[in-house]
Amino acid sequence: MSDRRMSAFPVPNRCRGAWVLLAVALAVSGCAGTIDAIPAAVGGLPADAPARPAETPAFPHVHDTPPPRPEPLDAAQQKKLEADLIAARDRQQPKKGKASAAEKANAQAAKAKQQAKRAAKGQPALTAEPPAATGQATREAAPWPVPR
Which helix (H) or strand (E) holds 114? Predict the structure, then answer.
């Protein structure tokens, strides 16, 4: 066997100095102050960064219990709250089937535009009537694709 001791992390002799220097630099950097003391040209905070607060804010108390909850609502308060919520919902959402005149005009204009496009392509106009009375859709009359 050889006289050299086997180590868990074998390092060539020429690299030991670099590793020692790196270890010392890491140890000393732990003692450094805050990064705002480093000039901006070297990588510190920019000149227009906001200043640190004079007092550090207190940490929240982890084991403090929250304040007690208020008493539950009675039946009358519950009904009033539900009615208020329903009224707010109805104010925000228009009722189905009660479209305004402007909405109806927009829908009719969109339908006319769609029919004009279909006519320009040579396709038949869309109708609200069902296909042929026999229940069999014909390719010419169907506004949707009919499988072969």
Answer: helix 101-121
